[in-house]
Structures are given as C-alpha cells and as structure tokens.
Amino acid sequence: MTAIRAHGSYDAHDITLSEAITGRRSVRNFDPDTHITRDELVGMLDEASRAPSSVNMQPWRFLVVESDEARKKLLPLMRLNKRQTRDASDLIVVFGDLECYRKAERIYGQAAQRGIIPTLMAKAQLAAIVPAYRKFTRDKMTRVVHIDSSLMAMQLMLVAREHGYDTNPIGGFDEDRIAETFGIDPNRYVPVIIIAIGKARKPGHESYRLPANELIWWNDVNALESGTEEQQEKGRLS
C-alpha cells in the first residue's frame, strides 16, 4: 500500500491510508500549547477539499476559531466539549453554502481554462446546473450541502492524521445561533459540524465497531445477517 508522509513533528513518519484510518481517535483532551500555523491549516483544508461533491459545487465553508476572543463566543454555544473548545489548537466550524452555485462559473471556467474539460462542456453544464440548483427547496439544498460537507470533514480528519495531528468531530452545539454569533448570514450558510484539531495530551480511547457482515443487505432486505447467536451472546453486557 502506498505510504503517505506525516508532516507534523509528532508521529512524523510515513503512514499508510489504512494506518491513518485505524489510528484516528476522537480526542477530547488536547495539548493547549500546540499551535498550528495558518499556512499549515490552509494546506490541510486545501487537501481535504479534494473531497467529492455534487456536480463539483464544493459547498463547504470554514469558520476557524483560533483566538481567545473567538473561543469565548463559541463556548456558550457548546452543549458539551468545553475542554476541547479551550485547548484545541483550532476549531473548524464547517458550514454549507446554500448558494454555492454562485461559484459555479468560476469552478467550471477554471476547469475549461486548465484543459480539464472542454469549454463547450463547461458551458453546457453551467446552463443545466445553476438553474436546477436555484430551484431546489431550502430543505433539499440543505441535504445536498450536508452530505458534501460531511465528506470533506471526514477527509479533513484523515489529512490531519497524516500531518501528525488529532481531531474530534463535534455535533453538539447550538446550530440556531452559531452563524449569527460570528456575523455569518444564517439564511445562506448552514452549520454542519465542528472539527477540533491539535495534538492529544491524552490519547483517545479505542472503540468497538460492528463487523460489516452484520450490516449488509446483499441484494435483498431479507439477506441482512444479524450475527450468530454466539456473536450476539458475546456482545451482551453482564
């Protein structure tokens, strides 16, 4: 398997994608003395933004909370996870842009200029995509940007691991107030998830994962295997 280079000073070695996945933990106790430079953070976000998105609209937007003042504004909005808010190097609030199609002309124009797609194809796709997106209901558009932004967020956590950092995905926050608190238009931008990033002061604990063969329907809903009686018995708490 191809190795990827860990860029951080900690865990700085070649790791495989499999190691990045299996080595990732949700860390709740961060080293408050760790500082990630803006250049490195932007680089990680650039890498994570290679994630797929519907018709390549890339609806993710980032609010980076790094200063003490910004953390004080964020703390009252967090249901739990107060320690991560104080101690993580950065907290990346991922928003989905409900009007992401406003950047469609630039996205497809650049793709054509760089020879990625023919100019005629770019124009045809723009003519189809933008009107379709404009007609989406708010609920439908919210679903689209949530899916796309979540793909990017998962990729960001693996990229962070490659750079030698730890993360904690956080969903427990006041979604109704976070945009306005930071001067972001809540009618256009919907909060998706917060990613705390830094270096663990205490390692995150390992967790149990259900085996995939208990979660699959092969061609038919009746084919879902719930596990043998022995497997079920092993899983019960005494």
UniProtKB/TrEMBL annotation:
Provenance organism: Bifidobacterium minimum
Taxon lineage: Bacteria, Bacillati, Actinomycetota, Actinomycetes, Bifidobacteriales
Source taxon at top rank: Bacteria
Entry annotated with the keyword Oxidoreductase: yes
Family per record: Belongs to the nitroreductase family.
GO molecular function annotation: oxidoreductase activity
Keywords: Oxidoreductase
Protein name as it appears in the record: Nitroreductase
Any Pfam family: Nitroreductase
